[in-house]
Amino acid sequence: MKRLLKGSFLFIILALVACEPELDIFSNGTMPVLESAEIHPYIQTVTLELEKNHELYPVNVKIIATEEATNLSIKKIFSIMSSTIKTFQDNRQPDCGIPDCDLNDLVVVSGSTIYTMNMDLFFEEGELLLYINGEGPFSKKDVENMKSK
Q1: Is the N or the C terminus of the chain less surrounded, counting Cβ atoms within 10 Å?
Q2: Measured between alpha carbons, how far is 130 from 73 in angstroms, rounded to an integer?
Q3: Could you tell me whether strands 113-118 and 102-110 are parallel, antiparallel, or unpaired per DSSP bridges?
Q4: Gap between the Cα atoms of 40 and 51, Å rounded
């Protein structure tokens, strides 16, 4: 009996450790949101990146922007990214199977510039902050006071 319990316990541990969220399922819930978001006309490609070294499985949504996006001001980028995150907030969190995962960062690559906003904080009613090429954070007020590019 002890052997059976040890075997069952080992199987459960291995099953839990080996499970990873299914990004295909997550993509099915993410793409319709992006299609209805303000960022949609500027999307060239979308990649979902799972951060595997966390127990909560955060997923980053990485967007390679079209060439048209390179002409947008930082204020406009901030506005579009904020609006996109709000669109995610207004919709149900995409599912990714078992174990559960959560939206983490919205990353927009526009030319040689990488813009990042954390979606997780926003879902917890935090302030949206923008990072530009890893520098920041910049609040909405900071961005409004920046000179145009």
Answers
A1: N
A2: 13
A3: antiparallel
A4: 24
Question: In the chain, helix, strand, coil percent, each to 5?
Answer: 45, 25, 30
A 10 A CB-CB count for 4 gives 8
What's the predicted TM-score (pTM) here? Answer: 0.78
The residues spanned by each domain of the chain are 21-144
Indicate the angle between helix axes 74-90 and 23-35, nearest 10 degrees: 120
Task: 44-47: list long-range contacts, CB under 8 Å, 24+ apart.
Answer: none
**Distance separating alpha carbons of residues 119 and 59, to the nearest angstrom:** 10
Scan for tokens 């954390």, then name that residue: 118
Q: Which fold has domain 21-144?
A: GMP Synthetase; Chain A, domain 3 (3.30.300)
Report the DSSP pairing between strands 102-110 and 58-65.
Answer: parallel
